Amino acid sequence: MLNKDNNRTVVSRRSLLGKGLALGAVAAGGGAPKAAEAGNPANLPPNVPEWSKTLGDGVAVRAYGKPSKHEAHVIRRDVEWLTASRESSVSFTPLHELDGIITPNGLCFERHHSGIAELDPHDYRLMIHGLVDKPLMFTLEDLERLPRVNRIYFAECAANSGMEWRGAQMNACQFTHGMIHNVMYTGVPLKVLLEEAGVKTNAKWLLLEGADSAAMTRSLPLQKALDDCLIAFRMNGERLRPENGYPVRICVPGWEANMWVKWLRRIEVGDQPWHHREETSKYTDLLENGKARRFTYVMDAKSVITNPSPQAPLKHRKGITIVSGIAWSGRGKIARVDVTLDGGRNWRTARLDGPVLDRSMARFYVEFDWDGQELFLQSRAMDETGYVQPTKDELRKVRGVNSVYHNNGIQTWRVSPEGEVENVEIA
Amino acid sequence: MLNKDNNRTVVSRRSLLGKGLALGAVAAGGGAPKAAEAGNPANLPPNVPEWSKTLGDGVAVRAYGKPSKHEAHVIRRDVEWLTASRESSVSFTPLHELDGIITPNGLCFERHHSGIAELDPHDYRLMIHGLVDKPLMFTLEDLERLPRVNRIYFAECAANSGMEWRGAQMNACQFTHGMIHNVMYTGVPLKVLLEEAGVKTNAKWLLLEGADSAAMTRSLPLQKALDDCLIAFRMNGERLRPENGYPVRICVPGWEANMWVKWLRRIEVGDQPWHHREETSKYTDLLENGKARRFTYVMDAKSVITNPSPQAPLKHRKGITIVSGIAWSGRGKIARVDVTLDGGRNWRTARLDGPVLDRSMARFYVEFDWDGQELFLQSRAMDETGYVQPTKDELRKVRGVNSVYHNNGIQTWRVSPEGEVENVEIA
Question: Rounded to whole angstroms, how far apart are CA atoms B343 and B413?
């Protein structure tokens, strides 16, 4: 009956009740709890919880709201041994604690090179100079008088999953894949600003520079800037957060997040790349033959199962079970995600649910009847260009294991009969 | 050149620089600021701000992030004289401080009848009983083992703009229109739960009951429950916030938010509505003839200009100016929004930007060249059913002015030559 007029993957009644989802049936004769009768507290049964008997906090006591105290474990985390200091380090999004495709601003991963620069928006300036007809300086208010757009994009650090090149290492989805967030950005197309300044015909590259004390810099091809880059000042409706570039960062859709310079203060227009630190000693991919790939901008299609995962084990021992995960591609929309329960012998196509947008996270689910035996879970993303997410071994054959960047290989989680999950590789 | 390969409304170079956007040109010969040279602070010019010279906070110091200290004014606000107590009251979303279509969780409006119920998720139960084959009790973990979906929906209180029936009154967009939020909900279709319980053939209505001490109740037609209602446990990816029903509320897409019962603990299946307080003395619309409209569930198409508005005046005196606002409809997608600058004499079609989704907020913009004279700004939404947002006077002719609910009339903002904005009505 449930499937009759519904073409989505839903579970029929028999499969749920028959397959280990032990829903508590209300005891016969026990009757249903009655609504508390107003004005007669004596009518309340003794087991009515405190929250149904007393007034709670009034409105706007929490003028800017926070999560429940029961969700205090849902936080960004760093890995102390991973970097020499916390000012030049990373904290990871708790992907295993999220669903859907929007990352709440308070949980978006951070990657800083000199800590969180705390800019005063009144003193903020963005300069555009170099090979332009007219160098320009913009205040934040200037930027907000230019036509703006709203786009949901993922931002992924090139080093996401970087620890896994040499084998399964980080036993947590948050640490293997948590250098990604997906929010709605609001900003002005960079093209609008460049047209105002008047780009000279010999211009080919831009230098992007941050206002943090690391003065983060990257070279950006002019064509990408004209195609789709945004000078962004909002995420998920509100102002950028300090750790994500308040008041202004650049969005470089589909490209590695290191290029999404935060606290953006300067754009220089030139005719060649600058070869600064972040595109020479860092963010290049050293191959086995001693050569390095450089300017590896695009984040290839990738996916990961977020639940179950090492930090989110299964709490039941068999029966109806949901696998949930995320997929994304720097080349366009996700077209399909396949999931295997047995390490790649058999694959099934996952249900994509929620908006599937260009260069945005997509959410996928597989519902299945777990027999309680060991599982080897993997997901494999395909994007609209036909690109298929490779295995880690396929990547290693081409790239070797010297790099920390651009590991978009298929992730394997082993689920034990007890529901515990660990990061493994299967030969 | 700017418009050549782009079919969006963007402003050509001449129109921006020619029309009062006084961008600061960089002084000739002044040169561009150089990137701070690492290791040689003495090279920094004296006017380099502190944030470009010192390390900021390291990662995960703010394990759950907060907005910048410069955004402390971006908060929900209540109106002290509006209600007898803050436990049975409302706080409003600061719409004039937001952009795009996602409301951050910390800014979603609240409406409580007995304050914020603080449930412990481990003790949470949802009971389904009444005209069912098998009464059932669900834990939160049970709900999370059922197939779930992700949908971006607006939730609007039926009383939104309710103070305006008798004329312009609240001089703030936050208070005239701020009882609305728009987030991505994750939840299980209610249909799945009802199929599990087995609804009897004579069933026609559901009673929804909250676990707060007001035991909030509403009657819901069974057909709506089967069509599209969600038993939701997440908003924007993370758990519901306490003030929005943690751990479980119901989403009733397109219908008045009073029916979106928070802290949902009980669903009773019956054959007729219950006629409880919230659908008799409240949430009915008293007409001039003494009769009342009841079960007025659907939120009709509506829109409002959020910027400029009384709390967000124009800071410039003429030139390129952006009007930004939101539109939504409980009957489907927004098809079009028109904007007038002169109180309805001339209309232009706004640019919708960002996802335009079924029963979700849509964002619109109009860019225009302000001559510095008085403006009378209005927006008018049309949805995909062909419904056109009415004027307030058109509404009053049909409904009178006795009700506080379902005022979706066109809002007028007067902008003075000084850029100040006030809530007015024009005859």
Answer: 9
The predicted structure's pLDDT at residue A427: 72
Q: Which tokens is B184 given? A: 């991505």
Residue A27 pLDDT > 70: no
What is the distance in angstroms between the Cα of A101 and the nearest Cα belonging to chain B? Answer: 7
HSE (side-chain half, CA atoms, 13 Å) at B366: 25
Q: Under an 8 A CB cutoff, do A236 and B236 touch?
A: yes
**Nearest residue in chain A measured CA to CA from B188:** A10
Q: Do B77 and A67 touch (CB under 8 A)?
A: no
The nearest CA of chain A is from the CA of B137 a distance in Å of 5
| Cα separations in angstroms, B375 against A342, B161, B209, B292, B343 | 66, 22, 47, 38, 8
Tens of pLDDT, residues A38-86: 344 454 555 789 999 999 999 988 999 999 999 999 999 999 999 999 9
Domain with CATH 3.90.420.10 in chain B: 118-173+184-293
Shortest distance, CA A402 to any CA of chain B (angstroms): 26
The CATH 3.90.420.10 portion of chain A extends over 80-293
Radius of gyration, alpha carbons of chain B: 25
Q: Least CA distance to B51: which residue of chain A?
A: A117
For residues A136 and A128, give the distance between their C-alpha atoms in angstroms, rounded to a whole number. Answer: 5
Q: Among A32, A196, A322, select the one facing B135 at the smallest CB separation.
A: A32
Asked whether the beta carbons of residue A117 and residue B198 sit closer than 8 angstroms, the reply is no
- Nearest-angstrom CA–CA distance, B50 and A416: 53
CA distance A9 to chain B (A): 8
- Please state, as a whole number, how many other Cβ atoms lie within 10 Å of the Cβ of residue A193: 22
Contact A51 B9 (CB under 8 A): no
Right CATH for A80-293 from 3.90.70.10, 2.40.33.20, 1.10.10.60, 3.90.420.10 = 3.90.420.10
Q: Across the interface, do B32 and A266 touch by the CB < 8 Å criterion?
A: yes
Tell me the C-alpha distance between B319 and B16, whole Å: 8
Closest-CA distance, B67 to chain A, in angstroms, reads 5
CB pair distance less than 8 Å for A68 and B191: no
Is B118-173+184-293 CATH 3.90.420.10?
yes
Q: What percentage of chain A exceeds 70 in pLDDT? A: 89
CATH class label, A302-424 = mainly beta
Amino acid A117 reads A
Chain B residues with beta carbon closer than 8 angstroms to that of A197: none
Q: Which residues of chain B have pLDDT under 70?
A: 1-46
Q: Which residues, at least 6 apart from B379, have a Cβ–Cβ distance to it below 8 Å?
A: B303, B304, B305, B323, B325, B327, B337, B338, B339, B350, B364, B410, B411
| Contact across the interface for B147 and A322, Cβ inside 8 Å | yes
CB contact under 8 A, A239 and B71: yes
Q: Does the pLDDT of residue A333 top 50, yes or no?
A: yes
Contact A36 B97 (CB under 8 A): no
**Optimal mutation site among A99, A103, A227, interface B, most CBs of chain B within 10 A:** A99
Q: Residue A213 above 90 pLDDT?
A: yes
Q: Can you give the pLDDT at residue B15?
A: 45
Residue A23: per-residue pLDDT: 59
Cite the residue boundaries of each domain of chain A with CATH code 2.60.40.650. Answer: 302-424
Query: A81 exposed, middle or buried (CB, 10 Å; 0-12, 13-18, 19+)?
Result: exposed
pLDDT tens, A152-178?
999 999 999 999 999 989 999 999 999
Q: What is the ipTM of this complex?
A: 0.91
pLDDT, tens digit (0-9, with 9 covering 90-100), for A106-134: 999 999 999 999 999 999 999 999 999 99
Whether the Cβ atoms of residue A86 and residue B61 lie closer than 8 Å to each other: yes
Characterize the bridge pairing of strands A421-424 and B24-25.
unpaired
